[in-house]
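Usage

Read records sequentially. Each one opens with the input sequence:
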Amino acid sequence: MKKPNIIWLNVAIFLITFLVAAVAVPYRALTHGFDNTEITFALFCFIYCGMSITAGYHRLWSHKTYQAHWSLRFIFALGGAFALQNSIQHWSSDHRIHHKHVDNNDIDPYSAKMGFWYSHIGWMCREYQAHRYHDYKNVRDLQKDAIVVWQHKHYLWLALLMNIGIPVLFGLWHGNLINSLLLVGFFRLVMSHHTTFFINSLAHMWGKQTYTDKNTARDNGYLAYLTFGEGYHNFHHIFENDYRNGIRWWHFDPTKWLIKSCQWLGLTKNLRVSPEDKVEKMRIEMTLKKAKAKLVSQPNAEQTLIYLQQEYELLINKINAYYIIRKKVLHEKHDHLLAEVENSDLMVQYKELKCRLIEQRRSWQLLTEKLG
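and closes with the structure output:
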């Protein structure tokens, strides 16, 4: 079978920028060095590019997990062009197809089942799905956003302006044009590319399937540090409409923190989150599935399997009861004085169910840890 045509422009960009970043930048560092101002500005540009992709391209436009003021959308649109990862419209279209047909080698643009190289960068080096390069039916909603339309129409010039103009202007201002072109231009771009590409490749190969095993996506806290919080990818693939990827307070997710901080400033609103009970039940279901898989291979495990299933059902029932009463409490607090609700029978029932749930969670954790 004949391979699709090579996209020589993409290959040239990836190869030249990588060689300059891998050879010329270290050589320059050894022979001339980079000062703190240059390093700091390059880091700032790297963060700006990365967050424009994660907070803008990904969570805002692809998944619509929140709404943003036009000024923030404009900043993300420029940052996306600076990251050189195609227009918002094109990127979002690809990503929505990826989520809808994840791991389908014939449809998923960067299916991880095609291997690391393909999902990381190879899918952009050949015309694998040229038939839909200009098919944007799945992002018609984004075509109502004037900033998306403007960026798509002028993407080439914006990309050139950001990737050449910013390093040149900084270099002229700081007095070292070569250092700026190498560090802010080439090195920053290569780092921006490959840390983003890790989400398509490593985040589907390395880590835990915490919430589902129906796709290859993995949760990996280490990758979160490289991808501005996108490492919790198993969660994301099943709860894609949540503005967070790391849902615990200790999860490293600077994209989540940026979006939330912008809400306090009035720049974002309608931040979407997944129901807590649904998230917990999905996690427990996967724990049950893994525990059963381990028990099946052990002799005389029938009684343990029955006990495990009973404990699972007890926990699910208590989760359901707790979240039903919690919803009622929150509703009452909204409609009545807080003091009245705190002294009500409903609150007594709520606290009792909460204690029972905590005990059942502890029992479930001890049981599954013992079996593990």
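Summary fields computed downstream for this record:
- The two ends are 46 Å apart (CA to CA).
- The chain has two domains: 8-269, 276-371.
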